[in-house]
Amino acid sequence: xxxxxxxxxxxxxxxxxxxxxxxxxxxxxxxxxxxxxxxxxxxxxxxxxxxxxxxxxxxxxxxxxxxxxxxxxxxxxxxxxxxxxxxxxxxxxxxxxxxxxxxxxxxxxxxxxxxxxxxxxxxxxxxxxxxxxxxxxxxxxxxxxxxxxxxxxxxxxxxxxxxxxxxxxxxxxxxxxxxxxxxxxxxxxxxxxxxxxxxxxxxxxxxxxxxxxxxxxxxxxxxxxxxxxxxxxxxxxxxxxxxxxxxxxxxxxxxxxxxxxxxxxxxxxxxxxxxxxxxxxxxxxxxxxxxxxxxxxxxxxxxxxxx
Length: 307
Hints:
The protein is α/β, with parallel strands linked by helices. It has one domain (9-306): 3-Layer(aba) Sandwich (Rossmann fold). Helices cover 37% and strands 19% of the residues. The protein has an 8-stranded mixed sheet with strand order 1-2-4-3-5-6-7-8, sandwiched between helices. α1 (23-39) packs parallel to α2. The model has no long low-confidence stretch (mean pLDDT 95).
């Protein structure tokens, strides 16, 4: 792939990585990611245990809980929804990043392995995230979690789910939620934003992926859940607590984050916008990059202040 954008040299190695569009390749890629996730070592002092949660339709969902071995008191909790275009599972990088936050912040981290399209189309992933949230909040004592200090995080498609569930919680569930942490999130509808129209040859993710998402994830419809599926269309985004939004410069989803930040500020929500430069969607897989390390520090700082 020819890179025609001024991408920082740290990330030009990503030019050959694209979301798989063939169903067979999706399956193979997910098996590989599952292996990498399993093999990724945890930082010293961090432990993980897996919960098997029954969803509303009886499906048994995997949810991983990361905690510090020597912390005995109830801790804040970050519930994380990993990205992957609604078709790819959590990666070893997701595991590394969440476990790193758990160690540095002395919090509990929860990784929700929601169901994936095309086998499981919308709204199953959305419902899985709601049901997981309800389980965690209903079992805070057993999980050693402070029920008054819970936040959501997510990147890309996971950012979409985190924001959608946060809005659904505000409207319907009414449980305490301290903060919302979104990394290059998918929040808008259609392909009309400038970044969605422009970035059609970018590494990792480009505007051509939206047709695939419509054909796989949304293939059975939206079921009247538009305001949670496309959070920018929600009529009232107030009451979301503290929000962090991080964008990548050369990313079809760049304008989603900018537009939502402006909407939050307009509705008197405390929103912090971090516009990264020279970056592409998923840039933070390059763990050795100083740009990645600096922005990880900004994420950790936000969580420390508001969770």
